[in-house]
Each structure stands twice: as structure tokens, then as C-alpha cells.
């Protein structure tokens, strides 16, 4: 036998005569099931197929229609079932009470065949249209999530590829990227409720953007000549002047991309762009708290928060890492140098947070060791 896919209507009434009349009107077009009480109706809904529509008498013993309707609307699985009250009560206040309970319509007894069929058909079609729209919205949400995820992955891959290029040219490793971005993350999380930082960091999305932006801090090194970038010994004063240009070069390159893609970034991201933080970090992570850094000689809170976090993370990791021009320092020695730079090189609050995070810092260094 072919499956009966007609809409299912549940009629709830304590009078068999009323049930019989409604069933006779609707059986030709719908699957119709009767329930003689509110408890019977709830049992049928809980244990059987979900009705597409409920015709509900108001005046019944034990549980009246208003009580049943409120209960149905309070449950997530039944809240979307349209309920039409069928009642001999035709006072306006009674109808108002029914609509407040969640009913979508009101049919007065004795029922009119034409009105009953028309209103049932209308609300069945409306309910099906709403379900179709919800399904479409769900599909759209999934599609948007998938597209957003694809864009995020593309962004992450591009960022890491660019950062790896810069690190490779500088004889550093990809683990330097991982260590520094994780130092930045734990610092941001530690300072998120601290005065002077909470306006930016009390936001999971921003902290995630900082984490993803950190690997681009030395992207400007791709613009430095090999004989300076890869020199095994100490740089001369003139060479150091050229080396310092990597901060400005990195900031300019990201700023150019940011301006060219401004409209696309706004439409996709709808808010903060990771390029903003990448630009700040690349350009300003060599600024110093006392104003003696480069490229602009910024000081104190004029240095972006992102760059202040990166400054501590980058210097610490450079200290504990072996370079062609120096051996790796111990963690203890590196921490001593960071502490000595408190209030001169580094924001004192960032250094204090770094000290408190010492166990996490050493764990990251050990996890991503070269």
C-alpha cells in the first residue's frame, strides 16, 4: 500500500459528536485522529507522529484547552504546531485569552464546513511554508558556516605561508612562529580584564585575531638584502639601520593589502580584520616603552597593545633560541633580561603578566622546541 503522506490533524474534544462532525469534514483531505481529553492528546503527541495542526476544544474536564495549548507552546518539540481553538464560547475576552495562549485561530461552534475547511487549509499551508523557510535558512546557515570556514582556512594558510617565508630567509624555524603566537595568546588572555587592555582584549574574537596575526611580525624581512639578513656576525651601524627597515616594510606591505581589500574585508569579516593587528604587530613590535625603539619612536600607551604583547614574546623567544650570531640563552637568563627591560623596553604590565605565566611560557617553549 502507498504511504499516506497527507497532513495529520489531531482533534481534541470531550464530546464524541463534535469529533465526529470535524472528522467527517476533514477526512477526505487529511489524516485525522481524535483525542477525548487533554491527557489523551498529549500521550498521542508524545508517542506517535507529530500533528501538522491541532483542533482543540476549550471547555474540557481535567485539562482545558487553554492549559493544553500553553503546555504545547512551552515545549520545543511541539511549540511550532499550529493550534486552532474550536469553542462555543464567543466572547471577545475568551478569544483574546486563546490567542495569548498561543493559538493561531478561533472557530466558533456550531462549526461552518466552509469556514473550517478554509481555515484548516490556510494554517496547514502556512505551517508548511514556515517549515520550508526554516529548512532553507538552516541550509543557508550551513553554507555560510562552510564558506566562512573555507575563508578562515585560506587566511590561516596564507598567513603561515607568508610567515614561513620570512622565517626561512632569516634562518629561523616555523616553531618560532608557533611559540611567539602562543605567548601572545596567553598574554592576551591574562590581560583581558586589566585596565588599559580590557577595551580590546575582553573579546575572544580579537584574541583569536591576535593569535593568527602574530606570525606576520617579521614579514618585512623579505625586503632585506641577504648579505645583511644572513650575516653571521654583528651588524655594523649602517647595516643595522637597514635591518631596522623591516618593521616599516612589513607594516607598509600589510597596510597596502588592507587598503586594496578594504571593501571585501568588511563584507566578509563584518568587523575587525586580522590585517589590522598584523599591520600593528609588524610595524611596531620593535617600539620600546620609553620611546627609544623604532621605526617611529612611540612610547607608553601610544604603542598598540598588539605590538606591546609581541615585543615581549619576540624578545623572549629570540633569547632562548640559537642564532648564527649567538648561542641560546637559558630560560632563567632570558627571564632576567625581560625583567630588566620592565618599564624601559617593555610595558610593565605585560612583563608582570609574563612573569605570572612563567609555567605556561616554559610549557610552550618545550612543546614547540626546535
Automatic annotation (TrEMBL):
UniProt-listed InterPro entries: CheY-like_superfamily, Cyclic_di-GMP/3'3'-cGAMP_PDE, HD/PDEase_dom, HD_GYP_dom, Sig_transdc_resp-reg_receiver
Segments forming domain HD-GYP: 151-370
GO terms of molecular function: phosphoric diester hydrolase activity
Keyword Phosphoprotein on entry: yes
4-aspartylphosphate PTM sites in chain numbering: 57
Gene Ontology biological process terms from the UniProt entry: phosphorelay signal transduction system
Keyword Phosphoprotein among record annotations: yes
Domain Response regulatory span(s) in chain numbering: 8-124
Pfam families: HD_5 (PF13487), Response_reg (PF00072)
Keywords of this entry: Phosphoprotein
Domain of life of the native organism: Bacteria
PANTHER family on file: CYCLIC DI-GMP PHOSPHODIESTERASE TM_0186-RELATED, CYCLIC DI-GMP PHOSPHODIESTERASE VC_1348-RELATED
The protein, known as: Two-component system response regulator
Amino acid at each position: 500500500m502507498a504511504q499516506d503522506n497527507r497532513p495529520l490533524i489531531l482533534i481534541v474534544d470531550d464530546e464524541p459528536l463534535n469529533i465526529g462532525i470535524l472528522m467527517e469534514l476533514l477526512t477526505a483531505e487529511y489524516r485525522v485522529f481524535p483525542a477525548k481529553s487533554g491527557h489523551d492528546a498529549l500521550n498521542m503527541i508524545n508517542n506517535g507522529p507529530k500533528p501538522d495542526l491541532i483542533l482543540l476544544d476549550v471547555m474540557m474536564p481535567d485539562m482545558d484547552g487553554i492549559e493544553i495549548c500553553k503546555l504545547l507552546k512551552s515545549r520545543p518539540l511541539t511549540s511550532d504546531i499550529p493550534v486552532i481553538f474550536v469553542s462555543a464560547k464567543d466572547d471577545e475576552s475568551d478569544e483574546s485569552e486563546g490567542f495569548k495562549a498561543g493559538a493561531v485561530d478561533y472557530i466558533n461552534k456550531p462549526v461552518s464546513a466552509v469556514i473550517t475547511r478554509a481555515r484548516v487549509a490556510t494554517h496547514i499551508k502556512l505551517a508548511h511554508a514556515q517549515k520550508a523557510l526554516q529548512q532553507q535558512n538552516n541550509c543557508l546557515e550551513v553554507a555560510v558556516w562552510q564558506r566562512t570556514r573555507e575563508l578562515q582556512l585560506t587566511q590561516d594558510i596564507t598567513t603561515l605561508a607568508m610567515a614561513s617565508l620570512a622565517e626561512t630567509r632569516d634562518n629561523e624555524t616555523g616553531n618560532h612562529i608557533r611559540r611567539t603566537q602562543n605567548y601572545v595568546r596567553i598574554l592576551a588572555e591574562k590581560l583581558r580584564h586589566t585596565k588599559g587592555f580590557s577595551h580590546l582584549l575582553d573579546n575572544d574574537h580579537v584574541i583569536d585575531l591576535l593569535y593568527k596575526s602574530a606570525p606576520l611580525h617579521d614579514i618585512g624581512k623579505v625586503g632585506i638584502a641577504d648579505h645583511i639578513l644572513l650575516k653571521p656576525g654583528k651588524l655594523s651601524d649602517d647595516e643595522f639601520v637597514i635591518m631596522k627597515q623591516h618593521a616599516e616594510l612589513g607594516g607598509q606591505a600589510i597596510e597596502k593589502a588592507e587598503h586594496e581589500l578594504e571593501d571585501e574585508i568588511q563584507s566578509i569579516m563584518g568587523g575587525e580584520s586580522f590585517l589590522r593587528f598584523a599591520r600593528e604587530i609588524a610595524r611596531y613590535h620593535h617600539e620600546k616603552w620609553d620611546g627609544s625603539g623604532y621605526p617611529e619612536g612611540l612610547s607608553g600607551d601610544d604603542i598598540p597593545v598588539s605590538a606591546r604583547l609581541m615585543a615581549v614574546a619576540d624578545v623572549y623567544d629570540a633569547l632562548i633560541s640559537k642564532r648564527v650570531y649567538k648561542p641560546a640563552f637559558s630560560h632563567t637568563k632570558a627571564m632576567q633580561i625581560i625583567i630588566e627591560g620592565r618599564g624601559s623596553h617593555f610595558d610593565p604590565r605585560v612583563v608582570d603578566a609574563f612573569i605570572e605565566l612563567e609555567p605556561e611560557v616554559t610549557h610552550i617553549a618545550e612543546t614547540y622546541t626546535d
